[in-house]
């Protein structure tokens, strides 16, 4: 996994609440058995005017000029600014895969759906929760100045605006540690192999019916 | 010290280690796999040279992309016309064979939607931790099991370590007391709950459904309610164990027998929240106030009683909500203040992990019996949740009732719930659907989904537009 320490990047504002995983990456793209190739289909129903199919060459498809990601001024953005309950819906990890492959490193929103939030960390994508007032300010500033850029520091847990004002955000210590160091969860868990085995033995004795088949 | 909630008990029974940073390793008893979210996990396992920790903890079945017509099904894998779907189903077969995982394959009578199959087989037991790479795993919480959806990285993690890295959630109790009016079902109840607390209302919580109305529900009804906990933002939905739970589990293929059954039951009876347990949040509803529900918008919280009118954005003061209402009305092809009963339907879908169990099919058949699907309806599908549900329904003659009324009787799978197989809406079509998500394009690009109970879906099929099912009864 790509570590995340600091990131300075251009912001693209997606001004809608409850953006769900079906919009982030629609189901026809879930049929892939790979982890890659989802970037061109990120926000497919909003980004293109035709209905996307897996395996299609997206570079020749008609773009929806009204969708914010397609605006010339936001090309190259790596920070997504969003509204309440971003990522609600399914557990598909294809959503953070698509966002990361498109080039996003962080998403800033007032709230996220739980499963999406969790999946993001596992893919080097940092979801940042800021309060609504801060989000409103970011939307206003982003609108007003082309090339609006934020500096994100995971270690310090801050998002710093161009004029130097910093917002701090919360992140739990384990997720932060893994993301800072790009650590593989499985390897970390297997450091506790002995504890898992001991637990399993006790559990089996107390509840043998769980181990039937 | 206050007592423990059911969630606290389940958590404590499965916590392997608590790390310094506050996260824990949670031991997983049952892992259910399907074809969509598992291929990349198996690939990861192989690349790292790892093996499943405890093979017997896993069961698998393809559901999301299997075709539901008899012709396509009869031909097996080779007959799946969509190449990419076929590759996914085949990949699941190969991965299960390689790693020795028990799989109910596409044409096995035990195949079906993961959340129907697990409970039906007794593979979901009270007191278990159950995970699956699918957000509706909350369904299994109906058994007093700690169950939730996980992402593909976690599927790989559970395969390799039998554990999940987890953070303890907060506790919320949804208390529903009283008797549901006739014609009002578990689905209407859970839609009303989501309408009340919103799609993010349960975020960060384990949601326990309690009260006399929940106690009176069958296991099917409880599964419908827990299924949609995720639509209220809660990964976990729970119902305490009682005699109804035990009666359902008894005798199922994976359930314990003999002395082990007795020992299990003795433990399971304790799977209830203590009377003095403290919840971080409480929500209260009266069953008598709940009417048949219909979702009008593009989020499950956009739901109203069938006798209501669509909302008027002009009356909403919060600009974000106002914008959401305007956008949803536009997408759905509706206008403000329109009676719900004036919404005309193009297709009907009775199925999904929310409402494709035998009780759901009985409720829909009771409405369809002796009546005809309106001529204006292009297609009305009934898709049982599993091969065993289908067989049971056929023994009861429900298939005949549906076919006589003009419904199509299909093979089990997810079908039009998410339109990964050929069952889907065309742009602009309205569908009365017993599934759980009405997101834009969920049932087909440009499709318009209205979430309802099976009885309400059948009534809409007969009338051609929404009607209060109670008018037909
Ligand atoms: S029936 Fe629908 S919601 Fe349920 S598992 Fe299948 S696709 Fe998901």
Automatic annotation (TrEMBL), chain A:
Example of a GO MF term: 3-isopropylmalate dehydratase activity
Gene3D superfamilies xref list: Aconitase, domain 4
InterPro entries for this protein: 3-IsopropMal_deHydase_ssu (IPR004431), Aconitase/3IPM_dehydase_swvl (IPR015928), AconitaseA/IPMdHydase_ssu_swvl (IPR000573), IPMI_Swivel (IPR033940), LeuD (IPR050075)
Residues making up the signal peptide according to the UniProt record: none
Pathway(s) where this gene product acts: Amino-acid biosynthesis; L-leucine biosynthesis; L-leucine from 3-methyl-2-oxobutanoate: step 2/4
Catalyzed reactions per annotation: (2R,3S)-3-isopropylmalate = (2S)-2-isopropylmalate
Origin superkingdom: Bacteria
Entry's EC annotation: 4.2.1.33
Family annotation (Pfam families): Aconitase_C
Domain Aconitase A/isopropylmalate dehydratase small subunit swivel: 1-132
UniProt family annotation: Belongs to the LeuD family. LeuD type 1 subfamily.
Subunit structure: Heterodimer of LeuC and LeuD.
Function: Catalyzes the isomerization between 2-isopropylmalate and 3-isopropylmalate, via the formation of 2-isopropylmaleate.
PANTHER family linked: 3-ISOPROPYLMALATE DEHYDRATASE SMALL SUBUNIT, 3-ISOPROPYLMALATE DEHYDRATASE SMALL SUBUNIT 2-RELATED-RELATED
UniProt-recorded name of the protein: 3-isopropylmalate dehydratase small subunit
Source species: Thermomonas beijingensis
Automatic annotation (TrEMBL), chain B:
Source organism of the structure: Thermomonas beijingensis
Pathway: Amino-acid biosynthesis; L-leucine biosynthesis; L-leucine from 3-methyl-2-oxobutanoate: step 2/4
Protein name as catalogued: 3-isopropylmalate dehydratase large subunit
Cofactor: [4Fe-4S] cluster
Entry-linked Gene3D superfamilies: Aconitase, domain 3
Binding site for [4Fe-4S] cluster: 353, 414, 417
Source organism superkingdom: Bacteria
Keyword flag Hydrolase: no
Listed HAMAP family: LeuC_type1 (MF_01026)
Catalytic activity as recorded in UniProt: (2R,3S)-3-isopropylmalate = (2S)-2-isopropylmalate
